């Protein structure tokens, strides 16, 4: 497993009773940062059909229905498994779960642990993995590239090369199957709600190894990230709006969302984020206000203790009045093309969670479906691996990493400067609202950066920052190419040059060099993976 969040650990725990499993982690993942909760049909009056329909609507016509049904129908069992692992879900009346409501959902179906659901899930899964004799946790490893046919002469994925940050050495880690669970790529943008490590590593590695990626133009911007000079990525959960928080103009306190959408603050995230962006552009204000003070201090302290604790440290208080918020990059809805077992185009390579594009999210992820996807697809990938792997068996030998022709980095400022430049122009040109000219400007700069970073990568020893920068520029290229190919505005992709929506939804499929032509497909891209074995390396 490359990644130790909800997706990777779920897969590992399902494999460990029968196989030896290694879980590589470079640091803190996004799971622990998820505040809101997990969507599941758990109460009478709600239904799978309603959850499915809500997801399809939020996805702006681009969800794969089979994937939505697959995930939604397995949600209650996923919640039950977490509860069995000790996740202390907040209880409601009569001992049942307390359920909240978030944007796009017509019913209360979000099970949560106050406002720290992701942290609680991560703790429970990590503790279970630490107890498992079949799981080895490999901390402080930065995956560089997959070990493929180029290195072994055998089709498929057979492990990866990884930088051990503790020793500074590149290790050759071999495996019979590889599961990418590396999360998304929101750190390609200047402002993001995610940890610093959300640099699209798995997407970039799979692309270099010959896998297709899909729908990379759809990056979700969370509407309500705290606007504060000292804190750049503190999320104010959508559950606040589910419990009555409203958005107001700072100048006069006007509640503007009812002017935009009949669902007001509970409209899907793309609608709310664009509305906030529009208000900021019209007024010149760098933020808008989020206000839940009318619910009273007792209610706020009981439902959002984690947020209140953090805000008090910054001199703010939800109960005292409105707080400033701004949209920020939050979730990558596209990714490595997979089927319902998480299989990619490369034999023995799986992708689960935010790194993948399963068809669940379409053009806009609905709130609290993300952790759910990790749990369901993590288990599905494990089941497929157990069915397909012959026993016994060993991965093929692979050559050691060749660092004989590289030198120690001479100017780290090159990496830091390029990182800052990339994130700045992606925010300015490929953000919430796009135009053809902005995308062309971004594409030009990506070409220049790619050339410079590639040369630097060939000449100097790899570092954690260089690995992430290399992956970020690859992902930025995939995002811009996808955005330029979509000649409409749909879901999270909004362009002033094509503001209307085409009548027939199509996925954007990018093919690696030599693997076919980029397409807009009207068929399910992941129905039958194009399995292949070749790949690329250093």
On the 0 to 100 scale, the average pLDDT is 91
Major β-sheet annotation = 5 strands, mixed
**Gap from first CA to last CA:** 21 Å
Rg, rounded, reads: 22 Å
Number of helices: 16
Determine the structural class based on helices, strands and strand pairing: alpha+beta
- CATH A-level architecture of one domain: Alpha-Beta Complex
Low-confidence stretches: 526-538
CATH H-tier superfamily of one domain? Succinate dehydrogenase/fumarate reductase flavoprotein, catalytic domain
Portion in helices: 25-40%
Strand content: 5-15%
Which strands sit side by side, in order, in the main sheet? Answer: 17-15-10-18-19
Q: What would CATH call the class of one domain?
A: Alpha Beta
Q: Write down how many β-strands occur, each being a DSSP E stretch of 2 or more residues.
A: 19
Give me the CATH fold name of one domain: Flavocytochrome C3, Chain A, domain 1
What global shape is seen? globular
């Amino acid at each position: 497993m490359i990644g130790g969040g909800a997706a990777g650990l779920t897969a590992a725990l399902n494999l460990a009773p029968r196989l030896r499993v290694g879980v590589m982690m470079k640091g803190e993942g996004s799971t622990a940062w998820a505040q809101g909760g997990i969507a599941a049909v758990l109460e009478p009056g709600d239904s799978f059909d309603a959850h499915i329909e809500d997801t399809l609507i939020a996805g702006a016509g681009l969800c794969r229905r089979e994937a939505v049904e697959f995930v939604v129908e397995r949600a209650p069992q996923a919640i039950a498994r977490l509860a069995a692992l000790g996740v202390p879900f907040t209880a409601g009346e009569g001992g049942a779960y307390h359920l909240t409501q978030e944007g796009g959902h017509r019913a209360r179906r979000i099970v949560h642990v106050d406002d720290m659901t992701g942290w609680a899930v991560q703790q429970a899964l990590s503790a279970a993995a630490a107890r498992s004799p079949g799981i080895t946790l490999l901390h402080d490893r930065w995956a560089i590239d997959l070990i493929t046919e180029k290195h072994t002469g055998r089709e498929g994925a057979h492990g990866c090369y990884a930088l051990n940050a503790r020793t500074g050495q590149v290790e050759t880690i071999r495996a019979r199957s590889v599961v990418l669970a590396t999360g998304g790529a929101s750190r390609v943008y200047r402002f993001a709600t995610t940890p610093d490590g959300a640099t699209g590593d798995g997407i970039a590695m799979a692309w270099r190894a010959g896998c297709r990626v899909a729908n990379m133009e759809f990056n979700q911007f969370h509407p309500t990230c705290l606007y504060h000079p000292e804190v750049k990525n503190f999320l104010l959960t959508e559950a606040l709006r589910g419990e009555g928080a409203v958005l107001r103009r700072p100048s006069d306190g006007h509640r503007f969302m009812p002017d935009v959408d009949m669902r007001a603050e509970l409209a899907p995230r793309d609608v709310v984020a664009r509305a906030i962006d529009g208000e900021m552009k019209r007024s010149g204000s760098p933020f808008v206000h989020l206000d839940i003070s009318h619910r009273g201090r007792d209610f706020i302290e009981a439902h959002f203790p984690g947020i209140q604790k953090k805000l008090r440290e910054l001199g703010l208080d939800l109960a005292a009045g409105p707080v400033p918020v701004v949209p920020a990059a939050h979730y990558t809805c596209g990714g490595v093309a997979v089927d319902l077992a998480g299989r990619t185009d490369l034999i023995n390579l799986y992708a689960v969670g935010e790194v993948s594009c399963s068809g669940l999210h379409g053009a806009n992820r609905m709130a609290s479906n993300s952790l759910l996807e990790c749990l369901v697809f993590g288990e599905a990938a494990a089941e497929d691996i157990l069915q397909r792997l012959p026993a016994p068996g060993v991965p093929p030998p692979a050559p050691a990493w060749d660092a004989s022709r590289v030198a120690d980095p001479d100017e780290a400022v090159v990496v830091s400067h390029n990182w800052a430049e990339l994130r700045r122009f992606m925010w300015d040109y490929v953000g919430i609202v796009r135009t053809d000219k902005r995308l062309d400007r971004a594409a030009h700069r990506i070409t220049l950066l790619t050339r410079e970073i590639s040369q630097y990568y060939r000449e100097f020893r790899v570092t954690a920052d260089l690995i992430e920068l290399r992956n970020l520029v690859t992902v930025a290229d995939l995002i811009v190419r996808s955005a330029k190919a979509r000649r409409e505005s749909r879901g999270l992709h909004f362009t002033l040059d094509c503001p209307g929506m085409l009548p027939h939804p199509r996925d954007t499929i990018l093919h690696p060099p030599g693997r076919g032509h980029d397409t807009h497909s009207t068929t399910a891209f992941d129905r039958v993976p194009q399995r292949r074995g070749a790949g690329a390396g250093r």
